[in-house]
Structures are given as C-alpha cells and as structure tokens.
Specification:
9 helices; seven-stranded parallel β-sheet
Length: 243
C-alpha cells in the first residue's frame, strides 16, 4: 500500500465509484468530497471497503467558502487529486438567465480552478504525485448547443495545460482526462456503442494514465479522431452547423 491521501472531488459519480475500487489496491486513505455523504457511506458498505480510511465531506460547488473550509483543514499528506465534479446545465436557460449562466461557469471552471490551486500546496511533491481532472470533448471547440459548458471546459483545458507547465518542477503530474459520451448520471445519451464508454472502462484508462504519468488522455480514442476532423472545419462553415 502506498502512503498518502487521495482526494476525490465529485465522489458520488459512477466513475468515482470505480476509481475508488481500483485505487484501493494501491492506497488506503481517501478523502471524498461530494454532494451526498450518505450515498458514499452506503457505497462503502455495499462494496466492503470498510478496511479503508475514508473521510467524507458534503459540499456544494457553488459554495466556495464551505469548500475552502474543507481544504483548509486537510493535512499536507495528499499524493493525488482526482476532479470528477461537473454540471452540464441547460444551455437555453443559461443564454437568457445570467444567474444560470454564472452557475455553469462557476461549477465547471471558476471554483474548480480556485480550489485546485488551494489543494496544490498540500500535495507531497514526488514522482508519483498527480492531479487528474475530467474535462470534456465539448471544451475542444465551442458549441452553440453547449455554449457555456463548452466555454468552461475549454477554459479548464487551458488551465490544466498552464498548470502542468507551472508546477512541472514540483514533480506533480497533471493529467487532462477527455471523456466523450459516458453512460453516467449526467449523460444517458443514445448514441452508437463505439462512442459510449462505461464508468468501469473509463476508470481503468484513468488509472493506467496516472500510473504512466500521461499528460492528456482520451477515454475513447474515436473522439480524438472526431475532434481532429471537427477542428479542421472552417469557421464560416462551422457556425452554420447545428450539433
């Protein structure tokens, strides 16, 4: 078992559940920050994970102060941070409602950036320390149908790229995880099977990418090909498309 604490932000997601299972083979101490403490407690009992040291905190990502309070009390024994929390939102409502728009940008970009920055000084700098953040293919080019969500995820991709450069000398690897369609709570999308990944498959790819110290990983390689093609579309044509 490796020493140190693994922080998982967004612990009530299916991907987080699978990651806890995999990581429990290597680590025994976890801090889960999520929307429902009871949900995680039930999950621990159901999967017989009582042998792990798991601290659970409830937090709303819109409430920056409560999240900062949790982080302030964390020990400087963190070896890994996995950020899974996110919110897809309603693009039509957000376009016409400044509060809804602000909510999406806050949950998907502003507060994650602020909170990750506060966690970094508590991470033990060594060759195995890591930060892994789930972004989205939506952040690789703006989308009218996901206007603010794609904008926030684009910002997150840029932040992680800059962060990777900023803390390179601290020996903390920064991994950008780019999922496509996932069979998870936020997205239950009807799409061809080869474009949809399960949380279990995603967790394995994320874990392997952490171990191999990768910088960027696509959960589904097909999406890398698709996004290369989409990014080649000239803006004059792209603006007329509806997807």
């Amino acid at each position: 078992m490796s020493e140190g604490n693994i922080i998982i932000y967004g612990g009530s997601s299916y991907i987080s559940e699978e990651l806890i299972k995999i990581l429990s083979n290597d680590y025994k101490k976890f801090t889960i920050i999520c929307r429902s403490k009871k949900y995680i407690e039930d999950y621990i009992k159901k999967n017989n994970l009582q042998n792990l040291e798991i601290n659970i905190f409830e937090a709303d990502l819109l409430n920056l102060e409560s999240n900062l309070s949790i982080i302030e009390n964390l020990k400087k024994d963190i070896v890994g941070l996995i950020w899974v929390a996110g919110f897809t939102g309603n693009p039509d409502e957000e376009f016409n409602d400044i509060k809804k728009c602000q909510e999406n940008l806050t949950i998907n970009f502003i507060n994650p950036v602020l909170l990750i920055n506060q966690i970094i000084p508590k991470i033990i700098p060594n060759n195995n320390s890591f930060i892994a953040v789930l972004t989205s293919v939506a952040g690789l080019r703006g989308r009218g149908k996901r206007l603010f969500y794609s904008s926030a995820k684009s910002g997150m991709n840029a932040y992680l790229s800059g962060l990777r450069q900023r803390i390179f000398d601290k020996k903390i690897n920064v991994l950008t995880v780019i999922p496509g369609y996932m069979s998870t709570k936020p997205f239950n999308i009807k799409a061809p099977k080869f474009l949809v990944c399960t949380p279990k498959h995603a967790a394995k790819i994320i874990y392997n990418s952490i171990v191999k110290k990768k910088e960027v990983v696509y959960i589904n390689y097909f999406w890398r090909i698709i996004m290369i093609a989409i990014n080649f579309i000239p803006e004059k044509i792209y603006k007329k498309l509806n997807f």
